[in-house]
Amino acid sequence: MNTFLIVCASVLGIVIWMIVDHYRMRKIAIERGNPNVCEYARAFDYRNVDTKIMREVWNEVQLNLGNYNGKPFPVKAEDMFEETYNMHPDDLDDIYWSVADRLGIDTEQPENNPYFNKVTSVKNLVLFLHNQPRIGNA
């Protein structure tokens, strides 16, 4: 009986946390308004950072975060994966692998990258991917 109550309380706690987090993210999305890729891009030195990587990270993060009020989440370069999005590291890995695969970015030897173990924000993910070598002619 005690085990059943503990399991039920745990499940209820997780559901409540998910609902609260959804409304928190919805509030952020409403306050920011419509997604603005130009505002996002201005946070980078677009003459020296691959704009394809910038755009793919933007798209992939939006895809992961979902829609609020029928619009994609308005991603900003300074958004922190853990603090802003409450994103689990596995979800961040999924974004990384998806963008790297799509753009032909080499995922070997990430420890040689100056942004290794520093990917905490959307901007840092873009810069990390930008500093990884390309595979072949991609």
Helix count from the secondary structure assignment: 5
Biggest sheet, open or closed, and with what strands and sense? 2 strands, antiparallel
Strand tally? 2
Mean pLDDT, to the nearest integer, reads 91
In short:
The chain is an all-alpha fold and 138 residues long. It has one domain.
Explain what this protein looks like in three dimensions.
This protein has one domain. Strands 1-2 form a two-stranded antiparallel sheet. Helices cover 54% and strands 3% of the residues. The longest helix is centred in the N-terminal third of the chain and has 31 residues. Helix 3 crosses helix 5. It has 138 residues and is an all-alpha fold. The termini are far apart.
Produce the secondary structure layout.
Layout: H1 2-32, H2 37-41, H3 51-65, E1 67-68, E2 71-72, H4 89-103, H5 122-130
Antiparallel strand pairs: 1-2
Helix pairs in contact: 3-4, 3-5
